[in-house]
Amino acid sequence: MNWAQELLSNLNGVRTRIHRTCLRINRDPSGIKLLLATKTVSPEKIVVALQAGETLLGENKVQELKEKFEVLKGVPHQTHFIGHLQTNKIKEVIRYADCIQSIDRWELAEKLQKRLEFEDKTMDVFLQVNTSFEESKFGMEPENAVDFALRIKQLDRLNIRGLMTIGLFSSEVEKVRLCFQSLFNLQCEMKDRDIPVKDLSMGMSHDFEIAIEEGATIVRVGTSVFGKRQYPDSYYWNETR
Ligand SMILES: *Cc1c(COP(=O)(O)O)cnc(C)c1O
Question: Closest by alpha carbon to 128, among 156, 164, 162?
Fold first, then answer.
């Protein structure tokens, strides 16, 4: 197999896994959106996945987002920003991304609002919650998320579309599951407080089946489609580097 065939075969494998999980738990597969996490992946490879019918990409670094925007702008798709976002990069992210999944602090939300006002635009956002309490991961603490969402609701340029989390990296399935359940519970709480959060973005290559079982509507998959990356993920989750 050449690299393109391998990629397509991987992609079909992921689609099948999503489908089977849905059938097993009686969920409608059309309620799950596959987001391809494309950090470090070349535009050449991304195009193959887009031509195979995929429509949603996720990027972690503003520089990569920008470079690929230029190359991929002729191929229909959407790109969500899923990495840690520094406030001095807001301007560029607004230009190149369709949605920001990593709103994790008030300063960022406020500055984003200001910039959007200035440009007379709006932006879809997800609130990123740290459900695993791992220091290395970004996101607000779950206990602060509802208050945070209530405050964000006052910012008229930001549309809260969902919640995002990275599950605990652990082989203990039940501990991983607790992370995803915690995000689901927050969604319910927010609905009760009249904050409609439609999407739950959770689950990666190693744990997306668990995430689907717990209510994910967007799974973010990189490795299972594109193969292993050269650098550890901590590199991509730190926008300062
Ligand atoms: C890289 C990344 C993913 C995908 O991870 P894989 O293990 O490669 O599937 C999902 N979410 C975020 C935020 C990422 O940075």
Answer: 164
